[in-house]
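Researcher: Please translate sequence to structure tokens.
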Amino acid sequence: MSNDATTANNTAGGLTPEELAAEEVTALPDKEVVSILDLNVDADIALDLAAPIDLAVAANANVAAPIDAAVGANILSAGSTAQALSDQGVMITQGIVGDSTATATQVSDLDQSNDVVDGGAAGTMPEPTTDAADEIEGTVDGATDGTGDVTGDVANVGDTVSGIDTGDALSGDVLNVDVNVAADADLAAPIAGAVAANANVAAPIDAAAAANIGSLASNAVAVSNQDAIIDQSIEGDATATADQDSELSQ
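Model: Translation complete:
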């Protein structure tokens, strides 16, 4: 049998007692020692937000929009006629008599100076009574009498573990994060707005469209006639007043 075959048989059969005795063992430390992440976050945030908004809108408006449209089309047709006629006559009279007034009065009194965060009062533990202390002492004495054999077993285990050198490779934390955030923000945005408008809007629209597309001997006629008489008048005042009085204490 060759040397390669002998090596293969030894591998398949496992380790020999000599090879097993030569293996080294490393004991893992306690669970709290091998923690992967040590995260400590201390956040102390005091946030005051205030945004009083006051808005007033006043409007007088006349809107007129007459629209007239005509469309004629011949597409891929021979000897056809397309005619579009749009005739619009508009007479618009718009009159506004009056005042448009918008008044926004805002009074803000904001106090954001109290940023003291109450951490709470520490509690106190009641002292045990004399009878309860005597009972606890007797129980502890009884439990101490039965620890002799356990102490001997622990000593034997200690002799075994003491021969293993764990070193510092498995001690400490892989990632230690300590975050301390202290934020104190006071935000105040009082807003006051006023809008007043007087408006006359007129938009008469007249449209006519005629088309011949890909046709022979065709006639396309589009006629658009618009007569618009528009009379617009505004008598009055448009007044917008925004009065803001803010007292902020931050």
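Researcher: Any highlights?
Model: Helices lie at 3-12, 17-21, 130-145, 148-162.
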